[in-house]
Amino acid sequence: MKVTVRVTLKQGVLDPQGKAIQHALGSLGFDGIDNVRQGKVIELDLADGTSESDIIDMCEKLLANPVIEDYIIDMEAA
Amino acid sequence: MKVTVRVTLKQGVLDPQGKAIQHALGSLGFDGIDNVRQGKVIELDLADGTSESDIIDMCEKLLANPVIEDYIIDMEAA
Fold first, then answer.
1. I need a surface site. Which of A45, A66, B35, B49 has the fewest CB within 10 A?
2. CA angle A4-A6-A8, nearest 5°?
3. What is the ipTM for the molecules in this complex?
4. For chain B, how many helices (H) and strands (E)?
5. CB-based contact B58:B43 (threshold 8 Å)
């Protein structure tokens, strides 16, 4: 079973890495970049039948920092 | 216009960060973790009408390392 977890910084949390990308794109001559935010994506190959509550547990305990990060879980059928 | 770019390591490229997550999940007592890979996701706020070829350019020049990474561009209407 493939599960994709997307972890992004919460709205309002400063994202220096995103700002750096934004400035770098500007320096490369790309115009009209209003905002950039960077997050991470984790692709998990789990045993079939792993429950969603287990996956939420993984996110809360390891994959994301719930104080400053949001996560979106996307479960695909095998 | 919101554009999301997902950058992942190509199949076959070693992913030590993913392996570290896999082992950490095992240590936390989660079973049945077959494989983990980590990538990044970049959310761009671009001027309306930015062409897809410009976005591909951004990926090739800055956002991804095309030698070892794949990228998927997801353009949403504003």
1. B49
2. 175
3. 0.88
4. 2, 3
5. no
Q: How far apart are CA B49 and CA B37, in angstroms?
A: 33
Q: What is the mean pLDDT of chain B?
A: 94
| Stated length of chain A | 78
Q: What whole-number distance in Å separates Cα of residue B58 and Cα of residue B64?
A: 8
**Best residue in B15, B19, B42, B72 to probe A by mutation, most A CBs within 10 Å?**
B42
CA–CA distance, B10 with A77 (Å, rounded to integer): 22
d(CA B4, CA A48): 29
Number of domains in chain B: 1
pLDDT in tens, A24-78: 999 999 999 999 999 999 999 999 989 999 999 999 999 999 999 999 999 975 4
CA distance B66 to A15: 24
Candidates A21, A32, A42; nearest CB to B38: A42
Which residues span the domain enclosing A15? 2-76
Q: Per-residue confidence at B65, pLDDT binned at 50, 70, 90?
A: very high
CB contact (8 A) between residue B39 and residue A39: no
CATH number at residue A48: 3.30.1280.10
